[in-house]
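dude i think i finally got it to work??
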Amino acid sequence: MEKAVGFGKELWNRVQKDDVFGIAAQLAYFFLLSLFPLLIVLISVLPYLPITQEDIFGIVRDFAPKETMSLIENNLNEMSTRNGTLLSFGVLATLWSASNGINGIVRAFNRAYDVPESRSFLVARGVAILLTISMIFVFVVALLLPVFGKQIGLLLFNGLGLSDEFLSLWNMLRWLASPMIIFLIFSGLYWFAPNKKLTKVTVLPGSIFATVGWIVASYAFSYYVSNFANYSATYGSIGAIIILMIWFYLSGIIIMIGGEINAMINKSKKAHAE
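look at this
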């Protein structure tokens, strides 16, 4: 119990020292700038994949507040028809723009680990772009699991002679793609983003915290907005944007705290090793 209290106090001190809430506000701004470019890139690869635009909306809809979904869907539909769907220089430029949010996370994690950004501007931005592409890849794989999950399960079932219970379990597990994709994305961010060599194991605590915390916070905020808050009455037509910014702000706080947890554990292990 004392260790848990001590850990909580140290974490809170780091949150204050590293200005987590201020950085989360900056991340919310970068997330807003990155959201539509990132979705445009996803839409651009749809003609080459057996998934639809609605599949992408389905995963976003699971966590985003309802009031923001019409804003996202309407703007994305308009931009996708205006920009086309072929991969081109325009989409590459969009990737650069979409990496702004990841680039902000890279700087924030470097601050959590107290390490300077020794990589050049192009290298650091290249890392952000690669992480963005990796996020898209993992996201697409998660979308494909519900599409091909049944066929894969049947193949395993017939080839290995497994029981009916296994097939039922497989059909249930393949719909857990959303939490899996969130966990993988957070793990990749915590592992590769900081300018510091880390192992897979050291990033797991922050990844688990961020995954659970983000899902719970998203559902709780969505419930609050749907049942108690009326941002449209206060902010008028920009109410949906305000909701989206608050959701991004909460997400930024959770991502940053996950990074602080990993940095604390890393520092503690280093101190014990010495």
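Residues 2-273 form one domain.
im so relieved honestly
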